[in-house]
Specification:
By secondary structure, the chain is mainly α. The chain has one domain. Helices cover 79% and strands 0% of the residues. Helix 1 packs antiparallel against helix 2 and helix 2 packs parallel to helix 5. The protein is globular.
Length: 179
């Protein structure tokens, strides 16, 4: 993957962080700076670390899957993209305030499962793990801050459009991986 592909992947993966942080930004009225930084830090760390775990896990299967790698990368990105798009049409549960350590860790894991799977794609395309992890982590951190702080400003914009955009980016990366 090129640097542009990694940045697009980071943006697509960061959409979940942005949406979750946006919903939290709608709710919080006190200690906004502290809470936004805590949330963004957890999101960035988990999003940056999960591809590493996926990458390492793929190493054990590398020789078996190399002949099919471009199709596996296609399938992973396409499935993630479709998941984002389909989830955008689902009715969301009522949001709740979540800033305790246990809750933050839960949000970090929940939003980074897709990043875990993308680690396999990073490995199969022989892309730099360190650069990918750093870019994904930083993008998620920044997108979390943007989401949190724009929560108050944009109460009426549906998160559906962000999720669909992230899904389309992943599907485009899937198609590009075949060429």
């Amino acid at each position: 993957m090129s640097l542009i592909d990694i940045i697009l992947l980071a943006i697509a993966l960061g959409i979940d962080c942005l949406v979750v942080s946006f919903s939290q930004g709608l709710i919080f009225n006190t200690q906004r700076v502290k809470n936004s930084l805590r949330l963004a830090l957890v999101m960035g760390i988990f999003q940056g670390a999960m591809p590493i775990i996926g990458y390492v896990g793929t190493d054990y299967l590398y020789n078996l899957v190399v002949p099919f790698s471009k199709w596996i990368v296609f399938a992973i990105f396409f499935a993630l993209g479709m998941k984002f798009i389909l989830e955008s049409f689902q009715v969301k549960k009522e949001e709740f305030q979540c800033i305790g350590l246990k809750c933050l860790l839960g949000l970090g894991v929940a939003t980074s499962i897709d990043a875990l799977v993308s680690g396999a794609s990073i490995r199969l395309t022989s892309t730099s793990l360190l650069i990918s992890g750093i870019i994904i982590g930083i993008a998620s951190f920044i997108m979390s801050l943007i989401g949190f702080w724009s929560g108050k400003l944009f109460k009426n914009i549906p998160s559906k459009y962000l999720e669909i955009s992230g899904g389309l980016i992943l599907i485009l990366l899937a198609v590009k991986s075949l060429f």
